[in-house]
Design a protein that fits this description.
The structure holds two protein chains of two kinds. By secondary structure, chain A is mainly alpha-helical. Chain A has helices at 15-30, 75-79, 84-91, 99-114, 120-148, 153-173, 195-218, 221-227, 235-240, 246-249, 257-260, 282-306, 358-364, 366-369, 375-385, 389-393, and strands at 35-39, 51-57, 60-67, 182-183, 186-187, 325-333, 336-344, 352-356. Chain A is globular. Chain B is of the alpha/beta class. Chain B folds into two domains: 20-86 and 103-186, 2-Layer Sandwich (Beta Polymerase, domain 2); 193-227, no CATH class. Chain B contains five helices and seven strands; from the N terminus they run H-E-E-H-E-E-E-E-H-E-H-H. In chain B, the strands form two sheets. A five-stranded mixed sheet of chain B has the order 1-2-5-4-3. The longest helix of chain B is centred in the N-terminal third of the chain and has 14 residues, at 20-33. The chains are: A mainly alpha, B alpha/beta. The interface between A and B is large, with 63 and 59 residues.
């Protein structure tokens, strides 16, 4: 064929057909059914080393498989090689944002088995410190959840106000994050002079901070758009997965171990409201934690008003041997139900300790929950479930 | 506070009082599962522990969920009742871990063998709670999976399988949860040593130094003081 001749068209273009062709092309290009996205283990939204293997179809999650264990430290095995007083150091590190609250159920279990009851003053101080660690944990959440939807300011407020609480914990126990302050039968020390007044003023700061968060975050249109109706956990599904604590109360389940479990610490003597929210979405999980922060601050103030004088340690033998027996102790920790099933054979250390941590079960719902959501919502759902990696991996 | 002072028992009730709710729970379980399926039950520190026959493990969960309103699965895990093998005698000066009794006991509700699986169920509405235990065969440990009843059992059973080697029949995918997929052994079994202690002896043994004013004592120090 001569090069001067016009090249005949390969085919006649039918405009209508071309449009269909274009549609088909686009569909072919977007067929990304097998795209695998690795979220983590170093993704900032995962607070540590949670890895999510997410299969995507376009922007939608087809399936999500959490891969955990990057921080598995084998605490259940280690407890079998430690004495009871040594174990509090370990379990401090399970949920490191609310270490004090971790110590309480284990110490309660040991005290139950030994038949020791901590004196009232130490019970009050334990309650105050447990609630303080709850406030510290939640303040971080209230700030960080904003961060995950793109609002940077609340994060700074959260960290700033949490510092007041950490200072209080440090003043009383000597440690900001790992107090190791509980002893079998009481506490290591009494509160320092002036601490109670300091704590009262800090509670006022917390209550003010909650108002700020309510204005700043809950009233924010973008925040609502990103969280309302996203990541809905129905009450029945949540319970069957073992989701507990604020996450379950955000699904309308009126269940708080501080009120409903076997009484522990001084919660029966406090007047507090258990908040629930009917929606079960990310927004309601934020809302619940905001209310619970306020409620905790009020509980601390009540405790400070009622705190009796007296000893802080019961009479305990110098070498602690726990009689043979088994017991299950559960408490309402900031992240949910924390429980220890302690089996003792009369030695200085436990024979077997089953550690039931809240985040483990809270996260186990993720494969169910993330199916069909959009990728940006994965981040808000992860943030709103609020887990601590040490609490998952133990 | 002498070393051998007995603990101050105070007014704590060590003996559990009869609890009508616990009796009702046991009665319902016995009625639905058959009298032979309830091997033992006990109330320890206000917690009801029921030991069911292995054949009734899944149906016990079914009854607990459907008829006792226990809609919340707290945990599933295992117990290895056999004491850990211990080398040397107890006076060797090795204080690295508490000395457990050498005879095998099986807790409040007993056990037919070395391994047991236990789980804790709760009701979010009536606040009923119960711990279920079942025996597991020594040679080929396996038990029915609870995943069809409680979807949250998935991870707990995976953990129990990798830690104890107890197989859960009917589990959709028994994969490793915490440990690398090529990990060998079952770490929470009592005969699995704590590798950190095997590799390097407990520092307590070598850190013993004599007090400044005292001459170094050769007696009773054991091998640790000599080093």
């Amino acid at each position: 064929m001569s090069t001067t001749e016009a090249r005949p068209p390969a085919f006649q273009v039918d405009r209508a057909a071309l449009r269909h062709l274009a549609d088909a092309q686009v569909n072919v290009e977007l067929d990304t059914g097998d795209m695998i996205l690795n979220l983590g283990p170093q993704h900032p939204a995962t607070h540590g080393t949670l890895r999510l293997v997410v299969r995507l179809d376009g922007e939608r999650v087809v399936s999500a498989d959490p891969v955990i264990g990057y921080m598995h430290r084998g605490y259940e095995k280690l407890t079998e090689f430690r004495t009871y007083p040594q174990i509090t150091t370990l379990i401090n590190r399970i949920d490191w944002l609310s270490s004090f609250a971790n110590e309480v159920p284990f110490l309660n279990a040991a005290e139950q088995l030994m038949g020791i009851e901590a004196p009232p003053r130490s019970q009050y101080i334990r309650t105050v410190l447990t609630e303080l660690s709850r406030i510290a944990t939640f303040l971080l959440f209230l700030g960080e959840m904003g961060l995950q939807v793109g609002a940077l300011t609340p994060a700074f407020y959260g960290f700033r106000d949490r510092e007041h609480i950490l200072n209080l914990i440090e003043a009383a126990t000597g440690g900001r994050f790992h107090p190791n302050f509980n002893r079998i039968g009481g506490l290591k020390d009494d509160l320092p002079w002036g601490w109670i007044a300091e704590c009262r003023s800090a509670m006022k700061i917390v209550l003010d901070a909650c108002d700020d968060f309510e204005d700043l975050v809950l009233g924010n249109e973008i925040f609502e758009a990103r969280t309302r109706g996203i990541g809905i956990v129905p009450a029945g599904v949540g319970a069957s997965y073992g989701v507990s604590g604020s996450n379950l109360r955000a699904s309308g389940v009126d269940w708080d171990l501080r009120r409903d479990a076997r009484p522990y610490l001084v919660y029966p003597e406090l007047d507090f409201k258990v908040w629930t929210h009917p929606d079960g979405d990310s927004y309601s999980r934020y809302w619940i934690r905001l209310q619970e922060t306020r409620e905790s601050a009020r509980m601390v103030l009540q405790c400070l008003d009622q705190i009796p004088a007296g000893p802080i340690m019961a009479k305990v033998p110098r070498i602690i041997k726990v009689p043979e027996g088994e017991t299950w102790v559960e408490t309402e920790n900031p992240l949910g139900q924390m429980g220890y099933y302690v089996i003792s054979k009369g030695a200085t250390g436990p024979f077997r300790v089953k550690i039931r941590s809240a985040s483990f079960s809270n996260v186990s719902i993720l494969p169910w929950l993330l199916r069909g959501v959009y990728v940006p919502d994965v981040i808000t759902i992860l943030a709103s479930l609020y887990f601590i990696l040490g609490d998952i991996d133990r | 506070m002498a070393e051998d002072t007995p603990p101050d028992t105070g007014d704590v009730d060590v003996v559990d009082e009869p609890n009508p709710e616990h009796d009702e729970t046991v009665a319902v379980l016995r009625d639905r599962l058959g009298a032979g399926a309830i091997l033992d039950h006990a109330t320890v520190f206000a917690n009801l522990v029921v030991r069911v026959a292995p054949t009734a493990w899944r149906s016990a969960a079914q009854v607990a969920r459907d008829e006792l309103a226990c809609d919340y699965l707290s945990f599933i895990s295992g117990i290895d009742w056999e004491p850990a093998p211990r080398e040397g005698d107890d006076d060797s000066g090795d204080t690295s871990s508490p000395v457990q009794p050498t005879e095998t006991t099986y807790g409040a509700t007993g056990s037919a063998g070395r391994w047991q699986v236990f789980a804790h169920l709760q009701s979010t509405s009536t606040h009923r709670a119960l711990t279920l235990k079942t025996d597991v065969d020594d040679t080929s440990p396996s038990v029915e999976s609870w995943v069809p009843i409680y979807p949250g059992a998935d991870w707990h059973e995976r953990e129990c399988w990798e830690m104890f080697g107890i197989v859960f029949d009917g589990h959709p995918a028994l994969r490793h949860l915490y440990l690398p997929s090529d990990f060998e052994g079952h770490p929470l079994r009592k005969d699995f040593p704590l590798l950190a202690r095997v590799v390097k002896p407990w520092p307590g043994l070598v850190d013993v130094e004599p007090m400044p004013d005292e001459p170094a004592a050769d007696d009773g120090g054991g091998e640790g003081a000599a080093e």
